[in-house]
Every structure is written in C-alpha cells, then in structure tokens.
C-alpha cells in the first residue's frame, strides 16, 4: 500500500511556499543551493505528481514561472532538470554534480513535473490509473496538478506562466495549453508555450525521413532518386516497392544515435540495456519514418542504459542516464526530495505504464486555435533524427499563419569569441502575440543539453520578448503607418 | 638576390638522408623529436621547393612514403603538418605545441612539400617563375621535386609511395599522379593516391550547393521548391531567375564557416584580416556554387587571420593559422628549418603568386586513366561547404567505375567507447587495385584536423589494404569461383 506523504497534504493549507517540501540539501552537492529548491507532490484525487520547483537566480520579481515536461510518453522531467537545463547537472558517477552556467532558472522559476502518474516518482493510490493513460487524461491531470501547484505557491500566481517541453512534450504542451485556454476558472497568468523537437504530426514525420537522411549524407543520391521514383512523395501510405526501398535506406541509420546524427551512440558498455527494447528487434533505426509507423519507438528508445538485469537484452539506446538513475535511486536522495517511500526506484522512462496515444489529431490544429492568444515558440535542434526539423517546420507552416517575409528562414545570431555567429535559422509568423519557429544548428534532440548557451539565449529572447534574431529590442511585426 | 643554400646542393651528392637538412631541434619543443625530421629544399633548375620529411614512428621497414599537399592554389602544406596530421600541432600562442596522438607519421614516412614556387618558403631564383604558374607546370615541377627527393633519400625508393592532398590538392594530386604514370623514367614505387575534400569539377560544385544547403537546414523547403522550379537543375548556366534565387538563398550561408557548416567561424578578433579578400566584397558566401563561378574564392578565402595590417580590410576567413604564422616567421624557426634567409616571412596562403587554373578538364577523366593502375581513395568530410561531399561523390561516380553493390554507400565503422560507431559512409567500386569513396561524418574541410582518430583509421585501412568498412582483412572485390 502506498502511504500519502503527510507533508504534501498539510502544505495545501499553507499560504506560501510549502516549508515541508523545501529541499534542505542535495546529497553529492556540498555547497549551498544557489536558490531555494522545493520537491514534493502535487496532489488531486488519488493522484500525486512529483514536482521539483526551483526559484530563479535572477532576483527579478517579474521573472516568469516555466513548467518543463519531458516526453516519452513515460519519460521523466528529471531528465530535463538533471541533464538539460537545471542548475546542477548530474555526473556519470551518479554521485556528484557540475554547476550549469546556462541553467534556465537564471531566467525563470522552473517547475519540473513528472507526468503522468506512473512516471518517475509520480504515482496514484489506485494502481489502475497508471494502466489507463492517454493524451487527454494526461492533459487534464497536468492542469489539475498545476492548479495544486498554484494553491501551494499562491505568491507566484501573478507571474507570467509558460508551458514548455520536448519530444512527446510536443503533445503534452499544446494539449495542456488548450486545457488552460478553455478553462475559465484558471486564475494564473498563462502567456504562452515552447516546444522543442516535438511530436507534431505522424504523416509529416514519415515524409521527412528520407530528405533528412539524404540531406545529411546517410543515403546516396542514387538511392534517393530510386526512392523518389518509387514513392512519389507518398510516404504515409507507401507502395510495397517504396516501403522496401525506404527500409533498406534506413538501414544506414541503424547504428546512429537517433537523437543526434553526428553524436556517438552512448553506451554504458556491458551494463547497458533497455527494458522494452526487447520487443523491438535490433534492426529498427530511429527515424521519423519508423516512429510514425511504430510510435512506441519514441518512448522505448529514449530509455537509457541502466544497470544490467538478466531479463533485459543488451542494447544501445544512445542516451546517457546512468548517473541520474543511480543518484535518484539512493535512499538519501529520495529522502532529500521527499519521495513517497514505498515507490520503486526511479527510471528515466517508465516501463510500467499503459499509455494510449489518442493524439489522432494533427497538433497544428491546436496551435491554430491558440496562436492569437499565446506567445508560441517551436524550436528544433537540427541534427535530431527522431523529431526532425523538417517535419516540425512543415507542421508549423501548416498552422497557416502568414510568414513574415522579413524573417522567412533567416539566420539567427549570437556573439561568440570572434564575432557574430549563425546559430540557426528563424521563421517568424505575422501573428500577435507571436508565433516563431527556429532551428538550433548542430544540436540534436536535447537542445539545452547539447547547445546550452544557444538554448539559454533563445529562452531569454522568447521570455523577454526580444528580437529572436539578434537579441535586440523586438521588431514590430505589424507595421502601422500613421498619417498626420 | 636569393642565395642558394649550400646544404641542399651538397646533399645531392650524399647517398642517404642529407645530414645538413636534419632538424636538430624545434624552437618551442623542449623534448626530443620522436623520429628524425628533415627540412630543406628540393631543387631543380632555378626552382627550390621547401620540404619537411618526417620519418615514421612505426619502425616498419615496409612503411610507405606519403606526400601531402595542401591546396589553394597558393596555400602551404605546412598547414597539413602543423594543423592537421603532423606529430606536433602548433598552439594558438605560436610558441608551443601539442603532441598529436593521431599523427600520420605513425603509419608512414611523411613528406610535406610547399608547392608551387612562391608558396610558403618555396622560391625560384627567377622571380618570373612565381608569376607564370598553372596546373600543368605545377604538376611538372612537383614531379621534378619528387625526383630530387628520391635522389636525396635513395634508401626510401623501394617503399610504397602515395600522393595525397586536400582541397585544391584535388588538382595537384591526380595531375602529379598522371605525370608519374606517364613518366617511364620514374624509379620510385608509386602505388596510389588519396584526395580529401578535393576540387573535382566546377559544374558539379555549382549543382551541389543548393541540395547541400537545403540538406543541412540552411534554406527552407519553400525556398528549395522555388529554386527547383526556376532552375530545373541547370545550375551551371542558370537563368536570371534561378541565379537570383540561388544567390538570395546563399545569403543564409554568408556568416557560416565555409569549411564546416557546424563550426563557428574563427576570428582572431580585431587583428583578423585577410589580404586579398579586399577584392571580394563581404557579401560572398563560400559555397560550391560561388566557388564554381569565382574560383579565386577558394584560394582567397582559405587565407587565415594574420596580424593586422592597415592596408588589409578586417574579415573573417574562419580558419585559424595565427600560431603557425607567428612561429614559422621567427628567425630561430627559419634557422632550424634551414629556410633560405632572404625570403619574406611565411604566409599560410601566398598572395604573391600568379596562378592560372587550366584545369579545364573534369578531374574524373584523369582518374579513369589511372584507376586500373593505382589504388585510389577519395574522402570528404561531409559538413564542408567549400568542396562538398555531394559534388565529390558525383564526380567519383562519373569516373564510370562499376559500384560494388555490397558496399554502395554503406556505413563504415570504428570501435569507440561504448561500441561500434558509424563514422561515415563508404562506396567501393569494382576495380583493381581499388577505387573507394567515403564520407567522414561530421568533419569539415580539414578532416585530419577535426576528426583525427577517424582520419588515422582511414589512412591505416587504405595504406595497409584493410577492409575500409571494418578495418578487418580485405574483402575480395572480384569473386572468382573455381570449378573443379
């Protein structure tokens, strides 16, 4: 039987940040935490989502609250916290940290939430709840958790609030945002959302795979021409000949790191394995083409190397979460983070949930409903094969917002040693309060992890309404000429 | 007046390595040189090509001699030695070195030659010679220098000999190889040649630019489709509409490092400038498209940052040669390398030669003549925009050798931490003694500089006739079935 943590329940009665959720120290980090951390549960009904809330280092009373959600479905947002953009990044030893100079809490109060129930250290008192999950239920539960958060932290209700997330977060983020949009009782200050390398549209993912592989040199011009001829652009319902050719071409991607074309595939050596990869067979490369046909791949392949188990087949899922898995599993860390004691150890992606993807819509339709209300940023590390920038740029185009011809796939810039550098390409749409798509050049699936300076600059420009292209003052997007 | 170094002339009479060319110490390197280095001049008529010869660390009496030539035309092979694959790589301070664990002299006796006259510390007693250069004269002179080398070092004549080079070396290498092929008096043991990110064919370079930029996310799908429609694949003789669209698309590449799409453009800050960039205007991006139209770009843009001169416009040619320029310019280094004292200081690319590119042929025709005699490897770092892998793979295809369907653009592999990794893609042709093309994934123009482990493995497999795909025993390329 699961015991409810008394602390979380009692905290609901408090008027400010819940003292019982305060993290007094982090095992492995001998210094003071730079700002206050809280860790505990956001509870509603029998469900309890584990969260970590980290106050901003900016000391700006106007600094926003940003929710972050990793994807899967089934993967934990602790990945974002401890590997991507938290203030302390876990080392591979699972015992120590590296301070992150590009932590997102430099700009915002960061809320990391493990969702849905069954993921990470989140749970339900009713075990059936983890076996009956879907996109709509997850969005509903995430909104309930958010309401619980602002009950616990009413002092943050007036701050601008943004939803952000990555990968299958491409579903979590707009679906939650739409729930917020439609819920008249919401009394926090929702302003917009951010999606990184998100899942948008199965059909576009299937279509983008061949051009992506060809564009990066993974298949030959000869093979590309054969495929073009056999497939005639119809990758969603391919002919047998097309399917065969694409599959054979995709074989070239099999050994690659699906999350970054140019990055070696991480393996923890002989201890590397990944639970539900068992079912997949070793032949399946991680490209949009295959994910679109077999959506389980996205969740399954993100599972990281973990201590070997005799029941698990050796495999190379490419992403390192060895240190996080070890650290979060210790008794001391669980106590420090106020984890419900009866829970099994943390996994980066849970193998014990049953999740039905009822995102049978195409995500852009949701965006179209919200684009005149919320500020929206879609970014893509452009060397990711799993949710590639081609499919996502096509998806954003299909929202049918008018492209601003002054910023139609133009370089966006940062100053680095030696002058201005192009860090990616930006497309701005002529909407208010603003819809933008950008690529991050040379980053894979986890942009904040692999291009931290660029990701922080991007977030700064977005949150502070600066010109995404230069970081300067915002350009007016609709010019009005006043005749006197 | 230039004085001839007595040492070189006298050495012609010696029976072995010329003692007077022996490098006794390198300023800035306080340790013993791991193997013997020689530096001096290969002289013929009034011409004197500066060379550095570095014995192999392999102690293998069968180890080959490999000639290396950088491109330009007008750029020095000291770039290859001190920045790419020499045993000691110069640091940016211009005063110290980093030992290179992937030095090519681990496998071969390396001969670095500055060519043609007027480049680096090479010279002619007749100044007119530097003003009347072309591809054919360069190949003729390079062969004369090689003959002088083997006169100086007769003990190396029996070793297998390979010509290798990079960039405009794509012209130097096959033209010299053809001279060797056709010269019946050659008594050294020529076996094959290697070209990295080489210049092959202006037309293919012009055609590859748009697919390369699109393939890496530098232009949008929308723009690509407009270009396809306007250009109809005819980039060599584009319509006005096509030209305009391609130029506008290429603007997106302007700020990028033309030698590596994903690498920041190096600048030495305010001291960075590049001589003959003056003439080019700042608007010209370095892509195959532009190089094909304005071949001077290749030589001009490779010029690296160097100490500021009031006459030189500030610019960012992206490649660092600050340390090498400083170090090679000192009196001590010139003495240590036996440089003709009256010469001006070394520049990575000479602005004082007059070179006519009479490569009006397409390089593949030369390869076709030699492919049944020499082992040939063409490799391309696949993120280089200047000589991109698309154009070069098309050029190698156009040799019209039969592709070996067992290795038709297949991954080639190396073992790294965590298991086998795909390091690029390989195409093998069904010729004897062997023609192969491969890409090096994630490397730019200077493959040995930016992917040293991969480059060394590639050279090892090529020189030692191993399977390029795996590093294992060679696969028979033409299978013969013996019926008994």
TrEMBL record, chains A, B:
Which domain of life, per UniProt?
Eukaryota
Q: Does the keyword Signal apply?
A: yes
Entry-linked Gene3D superfamilies: 3.40.50.12670, alpha/beta hydrolase
The positions making up the signal sequence are: 1-16
The name on file for this protein is Carboxypeptidase
Q: What is its EC number?
A: 3.4.16.-
What GO molecular functions are on record for this protein?
serine-type carboxypeptidase activity
Question: Coiled-coil segments, which residues?
Answer: none
Print the keywords alphabetically.
Answer: Carboxypeptidase, Hydrolase, Protease, Signal
Pfam families in alphabetical order: Peptidase_S10 (PF00450)
Q: Name one GO biological process term.
A: regulation of protein stability
**What family does this chain come from, according to its entry?**
Belongs to the peptidase S10 family.
């Amino acid at each position: 039987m699961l015991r409810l943590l008394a602390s979380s329940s009692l905290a609901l009665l408090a008027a400010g940040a819940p003292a019982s959720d305060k993290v007094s120290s982090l095992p492995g980090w001998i210094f003071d935490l730079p700002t206050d951390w809280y860790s505990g549960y956001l509870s509603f009904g029998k469900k309890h989502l584990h969260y970590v809330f980290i106050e901003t280092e900016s000391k700006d009373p106007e600094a926003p609250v940003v929710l972050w959600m990793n994807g899967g479905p089934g993967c934990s947002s602790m990945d974002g916290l401890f590997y991507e953009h938290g203030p302390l990044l876990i080392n591979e030893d699972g015992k120590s940290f590296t301070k992150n100079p590009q932590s997102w809490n430099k700009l915002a109060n960061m809320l990391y939430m493990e969702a849905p129930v069954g993921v990470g250290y989140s749970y339900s008192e009713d075990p059936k709840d983890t076996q009956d999950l879907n996109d709509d239920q997850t969005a509903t539960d995430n909104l309930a958790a958010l309401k619980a958060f602002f009950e616990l932290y009413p002092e943050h209700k007036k701050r601008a609030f943004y939803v952000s997330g990555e990968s299958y977060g491409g579903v979590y983020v707009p679906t939650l945002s739409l729930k917020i949009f439609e819920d008249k009782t919401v009394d926090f200050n929702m302003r917009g959302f951010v999606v990184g390398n998100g899942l948008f549209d199965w059909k576009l993912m299937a279509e983008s795979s061949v051009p992506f592989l060809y564009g990066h040199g993974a298949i030959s011009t000869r093979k590309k021409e054969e495929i073009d001829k056999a497939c005639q652009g119809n990758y969603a319902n391919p002919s047998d000949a097309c399917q065969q050719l694409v599959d054979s071409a995709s074989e070239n991607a099999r050994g690659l790191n699906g999350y970054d074309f140019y990055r070696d595939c991480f393996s923890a050596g002989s201890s590397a394995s990944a639970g539900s990869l068992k079912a997949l067979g070793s032949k399946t490369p991680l490209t949009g083409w295959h994910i679109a046909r077999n959506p389980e791949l996205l969740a399954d392949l993100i599972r990281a190397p973990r201590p070997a188990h005799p029941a698990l087949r050796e495999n190379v899922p490419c992403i390192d979460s060895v240190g996080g898995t070890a650290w979060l599993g210790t008794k001391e860390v669980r106590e420090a983070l106020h984890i419900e004691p009866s829970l099994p150890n943390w996994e980066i992606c849970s193998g014990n949930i049953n999740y039905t993807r009822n995102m049978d819509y195409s995500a852009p339709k949701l965006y179209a409903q919200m684009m005149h209300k919320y500020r929206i940023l879609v970014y893509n590390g452009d060397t990711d094969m799993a949710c590639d920038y081609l499919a996502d740029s096509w998806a954003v185009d299909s929202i049918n917002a008018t492209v601003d011809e002054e910023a139609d796939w133009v370089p966006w810039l940062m100053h680095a040693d030696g002058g201005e550098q192009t860090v990616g390409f930006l497309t701005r749409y002529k909407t208010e309060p603003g819809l933008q798509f950008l690529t991050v050049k040379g980053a894979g699936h986890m942009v904040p992890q692999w291009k931290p300076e660029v990701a922080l600059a991007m977030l700064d420009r977005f949150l502070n309404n600066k010109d995404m292209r230069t970081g300067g003052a915002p350009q007016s997007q609709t010019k009005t000429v006043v005749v006197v």
